[in-house]
Fold this protein.
Amino acid sequence: MSGIYHQSGGYRKLHSFSFATIIHLGCIDFCKRFIHWKEDSLGKAVGQMVGASRSGKQNIIEGSERARTSAETEIKLTDVAKGSLSELQGDFEDYLVSRGVVPWSVQDPSHTAIMALRLDTFEYTDDLLHDYWTFLLLQKAKFSQWLDNEDPIVVANALIVLIQRATGLLGRQLKELERAFLERGGVREQMTKARQEARAEPESPACPQCEAPMRKRNSARGDFWGCSTYPACKGTRQV
């Protein structure tokens, strides 16, 4: 890859993406099981909740894929993903409180257990889609005792904790992306820098011995032109 373009893709290795995917699948299942159509006859609540969970997942994908040509876009989309998951958390909080229940305390045993569970890291293979989804479902199964529970209060609370983990990771990603942006700049800055460096570099002369292109080198005595085929040819020129 050139020095201009940033690395892109690789989102399947991000724990934030795996959490966001588990949350999306969990949200779909929650809505199917616990939000009766009579309570949401127009489908607005379900549509907004599933849409927010999908946005959290999909914006991580798009931000990662767009990173190659726009660091600014990657930052913006990562922030959108974080905001969408926070919106979803608000929906689950409302679900609980409207039923006279408050979210779990951080001291609750289930809250502590969900926070303590660690995800494995996915390693890319030559059968990417099959192997990733096999991996993801194994990670999701770690939380099955809460996500598959018959009590919607347990499931809603579990999803809130998972959202908190995902948004925490996305917050750290944003700080790292911002740090890298301030250090390297975006693609436009990299292109400008590369163009300026190319213009500043003097044209390479031909070697006086073999006529091959020469490369600028330096020594204790100063800069000089050396044959690009060195050590086969030891031709030099003064700069």
